[in-house]
Specification:
The structure holds two protein chains of two kinds. Chain A is an alpha/beta fold. Chain A is 37% helix and 21% strand. The longest helix of chain A has 18 residues. The mean pLDDT of chain A is 95. By secondary structure, chain B is mainly alpha-helical. Helices cover 78% and strands 0% of the residues of chain B. The C terminus of chain B is likely disordered. Classes of the chains: A alpha/beta, B mainly alpha. Chains A and B meet through strand 2, helix 6 and strand 15 of A and helix 10 and helix 12 of B.
Chain lengths: 390, 233
């Protein structure tokens, strides 16, 4: 099966409220959505979110990579039907192998671009076969529970958000932190949410090793389930290991974990307790499954994270992966219109009360994408192949 | 501050934000393009064509003390209160007078239906229907409250700058006259609802914050959210 056209939408969907963490403050989603169309007319959608402080990609460099490297490779290929196998990595191998895997300074890996193309390919191929992605990734659990998130900011603002999350029945909550001064804010959230809530913190690399150790010490009485990315990626696996050795709180790698080489280095250094896998960061479904496999073999625990501002497309792909990876202890994403002014799917993919979300059973990713919404929020649309300009 | 005062102050804030927005001001001064007036008319019709359905939902959840009033409002919307005209018919007449052809009118109706479908398909974030009903009731009354104060202004600028006749603008005139009473009754209904379902003050405040985190009038009538508007300013 040939792929005849590719449309890239560089979106700008406003948030209903600003979202802040150590590395960035956002007021709109800058998602890249890719639509691929097969030669017999089936369309599939994929998504990636470029993050300079994670993979090194920008929206511009991701789009350039799709245009110059990934799309030409896709167009050259003749894709076979996707077939279920005992190992989904085997089912998806020819999709994965058709895409060049590369990064060049300052980009660690063009994984957001790869995620957008890979997910669109899988969606398109499955749709023309009238198969759900759940056929390739058979759900190993029937119920999924997502976490809420509190962005960095004032105590008052965090408590306001915590009250919302409590009313929505969310018991897993991640709090973005920037400095030692945040301890008071986290204590206030803990008091409001009660002891039964599972709280995690995410520093996005805000601390140096000494600061991270001090933060871990002060957070210890607050029963925090995980301390995500306490130091920056640039500090290396050894800094994470040092924090882990001196902390009673389990340590999680996020920005430090982009490629398989990163995962290997973290495992060898005994640097972390958790991997935070995110589809866009890890290069799509197959990249995420590979890192999950490495984690499992090394006894590293899992979180399946998300991208702030992802639309229903990436959330749907994440839902399938989350259902398959039943050892992922914490799930993030599927915020839908809790964050976006408008989402791109006809039926919402957003979680409901308690963070619970249903499986998606329709063909492909199981979402019906609204082209009118993509057009409305596209600040740039690029058509490749199929009579468009290359 | 009592719940009623808190809600009224939020209605006032939302209404002031709506009427001071650049697009509202431009329409009132006659500086908006014809297409902008038409998009506004579309937004109003899309937002209110299915009002009887929303009132039926609120009737189902109403406190016994207010159920009759909400039923009356619903029947009034449907034109079944004794000689009245169905409000959706008034909205269709407005679109016809504005020159919307059959295809465009049907499209607006489809979008209104689709919005109802989205509401039904959206996973519910609240634990029970009582919280969801409280949110829907507060938003519905917000429109009555705003229209009772602003509908005449809207009718005037549509008459003066979009050259629509008084009969075409009947929906606005009707809401400006009737909704002063509806708005007061609506606030009574919100208070009674919270009392009947024993919604605690902190939860009521949180539901109010979630319901009005965006400007509901700009969102429904212009598909604009607060951050979009800030970005455009």
């Amino acid at each position: 099966m040939r792929i005849r056209s590719c449309t890239i939408y560089a979106l700008e969907i406003p948030f209903v409220e600003a979202f802040a963490h150590h590395a960035k403050r956002r007021r709109a989603s800058d998602s890249i959505v890719v639509r691929l169309e097969t030669s017999d007319g089936a369309a599939g959608y994929g998504e990636g979110l470029a993050r300079a402080y994670v993979t090194g990609e920008t929206v511009e460099s991701s789009i350039a990579h799709i245009r110059e490297r990934l799309w030409p490779a896709v167009r050259r290929n003749d894709y076979a039907d996707l077939k279920a196998a005992s190992d989904p990595l085997f089912s998806l191998a020819h999709v994965q192998d058709s895409l060049p895997f590369e990064g060049r300074y300052p980009v660690t890996a063009f994984n957001a671009a790869r995620s957008a193309i890979e997910i669109a390919l899988v969606d398109a191929l499955l749709r023309r076969q009238n198969l759900s992605l759940s056929e390739l990734l058979p759900p190993r659990r029937t119920s999924l529970t997502y976490s809420g998130v509190i962005s960095s900011g004032s105590i008052e603002g965090s408590l306001r958000r915590a009250k919302q999350l409590r009313l929505f029945g969310l018991r897993d909550v991640k709090i973005k932190i920037k400095s030692i001064g945040d301890v008071e804010r986290i204590a206030a959230v803990r008091e409001l949410m009660g002891e039964s809530a599972r709280l995690r913190v995410d520093a996005n690399g805000a601390f140096d090793t000494r600061g991270a150790l001090e933060m871990a010490r002060r957070l210890s009485p607050l029963h925090i389930d995980a301390f995500e990315q306490p130091v920056s990626r640039g500090d290396g696996a050894s800094a994470l290991r040092e924090v882990r050795e001196g902390s009673k709180i389990p340590i999680m790698a996020d920005e430090s974990l982009v490629t398989a080489q990163d995962a290997q280095g973290l495992v060898e250094a005994g640097a972390v307790d958790y991997f935070n896998l995110r589809l866009s960061k890890c290069g799509g479904i197959t990249g995420t499954l590979r890192l999950a496999q490495m984690a499992r073999e090394a006894g590293v625990r899992l979180q399946l994270g998300s991208q702030v501002g992802e639309t229903a497309i990436l959330s749907a792909a994440g839902r399938h992966v989350a259902a398959y990876l039943d050892d992922a202890e914490f799930l993030e994403g599927s915020y839908g219109t809790l964050l976006l002014a408008e989402d791109v799917s006809r039926d919402p993919v957003q979680f409901g009360h308690g963070g619970r979300a249903a499986m998606l059973r329709g063909p492909g990713l199981g979402v019906q994408v609204r082209e009118d919404v993509l057009r409305k929020y596209a600040r740039e649309t690029i058509k490749l192949g199929g009579g468009g300009h290359d | 501050m009592s719940l009623r005062s808190r809600i009224e102050s939020e209605y006032l804030r939302q209404t002031e934000e709506f009427t001071s927005s650049a697009i509202f001001q431009a329409m009132e001064r006659g500086e908006a393009a014809r297409a902008e007036y038409d998009l506004f008319i579309e937004g109003v019709c899309r937002s209110h064509l299915k009002s009887p359905h929303i009132l039926a939902f609120l009737f189902a959840l109403a406190s016994p003390k207010r159920a009759e009033e909400i039923k009356h409002n619903m029947l009034e919307e449907l034109g079944l209160d004794g000689g009245g005209v169905a409000h959706p018919s008034l909205l269709f007449e407005l679109m016809e007078a504005a020159g919307f052809d059959e295809g465009r009118r049907a499209c607006v109706e489809r979008e209104a239906q689709e919005e109802l479908r989205r509401i039904a398909a959206q996973p519910v974030l609240y634990a029970t229907l009582k919280e969801l009903g409280f949110s829907v009731l507060m938003e519905t009354v917000a429109f009555e409250w705003m229209l009772s104060r602003v509908a005449s202004r809207i009718a005037h600028f549509l008459r003066d700058h979009r050259q629509l006749s008084a009969s075409a603008l009947e929906w606005f005139y009707h809401h400006s006259e009737v909704d002063l009473r509806h708005a007061e009754e609506g606030l009574d209904a919100v208070e009674d609802y919270a009392r009947f379902y024993e919604i605690d003050a902190q939860d009521a405040e949180t539901i109010l914050e979630v319901t009005f985190r965006e400007n509901v009038f700009l969102k429904r009538y212009f598909s604009l959210n607060t951050l979009t508007r800030e970005a455009l300013a």
